[in-house]
């Protein structure tokens, strides 16, 4: 890339020591030496003649010399994908292929949609693994001697939480971190196959247990099926999808996980009335837990019929296989050659950037990276402490406390799952228009209100009124969660980190997610017993209020920003961003709620306008 375009902020706009040091550094560093900027487009600025010569040498070196002309064209297009109309080297047929990539972006090869089905099914298995325990909770407690009533209720509440949370303990401590070496040695498809096999075996294992501690062990090992799968499938989809529909396909993970949660409740209902057989006690809950393993068999049968990730194959030096893979995933050899060559130069740039660098250390020692890690931590942490998985794992117990029969509680839980899935669809459109931050700031206060509504409804005398208000509160809460805190965390974390630390950043974010998933699932039964439903729901309503302010102060918007603009956003010191947002909050309330005519605030980022000392004079909020 050109070395004439520095990424910097005005030095006079920084007042804190962190910011001063960063500005001194950024004033000396230009795009050529910025790791994130270097990876933004390694082909930028290369003359066309040199670019075609490089592409021809690449094709010959990788045993693809018979495709030299195609790779020359592909390299030219990869340098600036939107400028292909001006390339005289391309034929009219070539240009028409590239035009249709924009005008008919969903007209993709059948093989790509087959891969989408695989990824969607993997997400659904994930949701089922999480949800089927909901119905089983109604039965195995008494059978295993951990009933939540009686003199040992407090101890049993902790044991129930431990059993329910076991997979997420494994994910947070081990499962999310082993995904990187598994992907390195077995590839994306191999990791998905292994995790699906583990899910199948452990689901069957759960149905064969006869003590709470045996069930805990089986569910702990289920974490080795959940953790690597959750870290691998979105990456696999992103590496195989064309850029024009990549975001939508990656978001399918959250949508179809919600579908799997809903279908898990369907299985709970389907096996609810199954009677015990001779020498088999609790056949119904055993079938509930085992049912989640069946879709995993379809993944195992299907995954090796899909192409391997081209990026992984190229990382192993198998360029011919990578090209074959891309031919199956793209509509033309030109598109396959373009993507192959671009991935190649990107891998070379990454190799140069990573040499001698400790990426895990730089995730927290470099201020820009640290702010991205903080923002990702907040959205991942709040996905758990907003209370959604309390309902996902324990809704049947909550509904029975409100006066439902067991079967009615499972039907009501299915309603929750259905709403969680249906209202995830609007996020496909709103997340890139309304924005990640705006979705969160809008929905968190509403989630707090509806959790309070659900908790306070337990003060209503037992009867139909109480039952109706409990269900209404949970359903309204779910409607607010699904398009906001549901899809945003994974999407936000995937784009907030610079490219050169993105892998380790996502491992960190995923580990945070699963660890606090464990905390929530482990503590809720005892929390419910100690606080009563009113206090328990009030507790998570309070966390939603906390989440609103944490996002307001520490989570910048990332929607539709280039890598350079993201650098600028996360280079603004944390204290400056927080102070600006506290000033903007009453301003936005006046403008958007009370419809008052108030003057615009000065912009915070360079890509929105200049930051100057005149905007933030001492005595106001301090220098930016």
From TrEMBL:
Cellular localisation: Membrane
Region ranges (Disordered): 1-26
The keyword Nucleotide-binding belongs to this UniProt entry's keyword annotation: no
PANTHER family: PROTON MYO-INOSITOL COTRANSPORTER (PTHR48020), SUGAR TRANSPORTER, PUTATIVE (AFU_ORTHOLOGUE AFUA_7G05830)-RELATED (PTHR48020:SF25)
MF terms (GO), sorted A to Z: transmembrane transporter activity
Broad class of the protein's primary localization: membrane
NCBIfam families (alphabetical): SP
Topology relative to the membrane: Multi-pass membrane protein
GO BP of this protein: myo-inositol transport; polyol transmembrane transport
GO cellular component: membrane
Biased amino acid composition, Basic and acidic residues: 1-13
Keyword Membrane among UniProt keywords: yes
Membrane-spanning intervals of the chain: 110-128, 158-178, 190-208, 214-237, 249-273, 285-306, 372-394, 409-431, 438-459, 465-483, 504-524, 536-555
Catalytic reaction annotation: myo-inositol(out) + H(+)(out) = myo-inositol(in) + H(+)(in)
Organism listed in the record: Wolfiporia cocos (strain MD-104)
Domain Major facilitator superfamily (MFS) profile: 115-559
Pfam families with a match to the protein in the record: Sugar_tr
Protein name: Major facilitator superfamily (MFS) profile domain-containing protein
UniProt keyword list: Membrane, Transmembrane, Transmembrane helix, Transport
Family note: Belongs to the major facilitator superfamily. Sugar transporter (TC 2.A.1.1) family.
């Amino acid at each position: 890339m050109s070395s004439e375009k520095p990424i910097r902020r005005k030095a006079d706009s920084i007042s804190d020591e962190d910011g001063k040091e960063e500005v001194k550094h950024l004033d000396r560093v230009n795009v050529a030496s910025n790791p994130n900027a270097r990876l933004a487009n390694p082909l930028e600025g290369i003359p066309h003649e040199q670019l075609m010569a490089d592409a021809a040498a690449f094709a010959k070196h990788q045993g693809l010399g018979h495709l030299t002309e195609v790779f020359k064209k592909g390299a030219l297009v990869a340098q600036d994908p939107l400028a292909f109309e001006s390339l005289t080297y391309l034929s009219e047929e070539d240009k028409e292929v590239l035009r249709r990539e924009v005008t008919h972006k969903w007209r993709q090869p059948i093989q790509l949609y087959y891969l989408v089905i695989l990824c969607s099914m993997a997400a659904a298995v994930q949701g089922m693994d999480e949800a089927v325990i909901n119905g089983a909770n109604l039965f195995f407690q008494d059978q295993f001697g951990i009933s939540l009533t009686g003199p040992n209720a407090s101890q049993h509440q902790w044991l129930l939480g431990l059993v329910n949370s076991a997979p997420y303990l494994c994910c947070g401590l081990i499962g999310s971190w082993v995904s990187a070496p598994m992907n390195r040695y077995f590839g994306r498809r191999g990791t998905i196959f292994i995790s699906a096999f583990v899910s199948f075996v452990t689901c069957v294992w759960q149905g064969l247990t006869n003590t709470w501690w045996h069930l805990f062990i089986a569910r702990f090992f289920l974490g080795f099926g959940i953790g690597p799968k959750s870290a691998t499938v979105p990456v696999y989809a992103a590496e195989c999808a064309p850029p024009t529909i990549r975001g939508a396909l990656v978001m399918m993970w959250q949508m179809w996980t919600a579908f799997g949660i809903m279908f898990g409740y369907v299985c709970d209902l389907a096996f609810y009335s199954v009677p015990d057989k001779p020498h088999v006690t609790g056949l119904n809950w055993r079938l509930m837990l085992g049912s989640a393993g069946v879709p995993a068999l379809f993944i195992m049968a299907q995954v090796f019929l899909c192409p391997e990730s081209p990026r992984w194959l190229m990382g192993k030096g198998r360029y011919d296989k990578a090209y074959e893979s891309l031919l199956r995933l793209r509509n033309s050899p030109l598109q396959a050659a373009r993507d192959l060559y671009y991935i190649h130069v990107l891998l070379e740039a990454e190799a140069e950037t990573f040499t001698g660098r400790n990426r895990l250390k730089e995730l927290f020692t470099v201020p820009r990276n640290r702010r991205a890690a903080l923002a990702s931590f907040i959205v991942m942490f709040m996905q758990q402490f907003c209370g959604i998985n309390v309902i996902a794992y324990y809704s049947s117990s909550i509904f029975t406390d409100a006066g439902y029969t067991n079967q009615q509680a499972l039907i009501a839980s299915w309603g929750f799952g259905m709403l969680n899935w249906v209202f995830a669809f609007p996020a496909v459109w709103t997340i890139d228009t309304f924005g990640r931050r705006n979705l969160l700031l809008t929905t968190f206060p509403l989630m707090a209100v509806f959790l309070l509504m659900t908790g306070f409804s337990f003060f209503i005398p037992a009867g139909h009124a109480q039952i109706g208000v409990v269900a209404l509160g949970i359903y309204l809460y779910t409607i607010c969660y699904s398009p906001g805190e549901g899809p945003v965390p994974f999407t936000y974390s995937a784009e907030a980190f610079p490219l050169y630390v993105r892998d380790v950043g996502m491992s960190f974010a995923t580990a945070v997610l699963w660890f606090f998933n464990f905390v929530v699932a482990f503590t809720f039964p005892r929390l419910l017993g100690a606080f009563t439903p009113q206090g328990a729901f009030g507790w998570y309503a309070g966390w939603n209020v906390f989440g609103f302010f944490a996002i307001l102060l520490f989570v910048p918007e990332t929607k539709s920003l280039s890598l350079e603009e993201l650098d600028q956003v996360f280079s603004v010191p944390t204290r400056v961003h927080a102070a600006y947002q506290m000033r903007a909050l009453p301003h936005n309330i006046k403008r958007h709620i009370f419809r008052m005519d108030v003057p615009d605030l000065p912009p915070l980022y360079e890509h929105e306008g200049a930051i100057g000392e005149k905007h933030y004079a001492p005595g106001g909020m301090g220098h930016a």
